[in-house]
Amino acid sequence: MTHIKILPTDIAARVLTTICLGLLIPTVASAEAIAATLNQWGLIGATAKDCAKPASPSNAHNSYIVRADASVYYAPNYGRGNDSLNSFELEAATIEPSGAIVLRVTRPDKTLGTGTTQIMGSAGRFTDSNKSREWTLIKGSDGRIRTMSNREVGGDYSVRDGKLVTNGAETPWYTSCK
Predict the structure, then answer these.
(1) What is the pLDDT of residues 100-110, one digit of tens each?
(2) Angle at 30 between CA 96 and CA 176, to 5 degrees
(3) For residues 48 and 50, what is the distance between their CA atoms, to the nearest angstrom?
(4) Using CB atoms within 10 A of its CB, is residue 135 exposed (0-12), middle (13-18) or buried (19+)?
(5) Could you give the C-alpha distances from 16 to 4, 5, 20, in angstroms and in order?
(6) What average pLDDT does the segment 87-94 reach?
(7) How many C-beta atoms surround the C-beta of residue 171 within 10 A?
(8) How is 10-48 classified by DSSP, letter by letter?
(9) CA 44 to CA 6: how far, in whole Å?
(10) Nearest CA among 155, 110, 113 for reference residue 134
(11) Helix (H) or strand (E) holding 9
(12) Are residues 167 and 124 in contact, defined by beta-carbon separation less than 8 angstroms?
């Protein structure tokens, strides 16, 4: 009869492997949950003010894209060719009882450091930092989408109540380009 001897180091290695694999599962489940929430809300794909017109600074084509690993990112296209620098990773997505969707996003580029940069444009102030932001979007009865709030988590708003903080202009409505 042959006996197999299991060494204490083998047991420790197996336990460590099991723990490490267990830690990976919530990440995948979370990414899948975010993708499922965006899909349920109808946000996966591109939106624009006018889908028939090309992307431009006045007609951004905004895309929510699901990767093979189920993670989701937001990629705006302003028709300038370098717009991938403005992408955001989605960290969380929740559909509110009101029907609004709340997204928590962050820049994938951690080289921005701990400081912030104020960028002024025709749309108003935008604070560019590596801190998470929270966006609240609503859907109109016709299916169009509008940003109602955009703020740094725990910080200042750049959009509040559907209006740009800097000049009070209303945020535009976007149509799904599916």
Answers:
(1) 999 999 987 64
(2) 55
(3) 5
(4) buried
(5) 21, 19, 6
(6) 93
(7) 20
(8) HHHHHHHHHHHHHHHHHHHHHHHHHHHHHHHHT-SEEEE
(9) 50
(10) 155
(11) helix 8-41
(12) yes
Strand partners of residue 145: 139, 174
| HSE-CB of 86 using CA atoms within 13 angstroms | 18
- Per the DSSP assignment, residues forming a β-bridge with 23 are none
- The pTM assigned to this predicted structure is 0.74
Only one residue has tokens 């940003």, namely 147
The DSSP secondary-structure symbol of 154 reads T
Structure tokens at 85: 């620098």
Q: Quick check: 11 and 144 in contact, CB under 8 A?
A: no
Give mean pLDDT, residues 147-176. Answer: 95
Q: What residue type is 33 in one-letter code?
A: A
First to last CA, the chain: 67
Cβ pair 60, 77 in contact under 8 A: yes
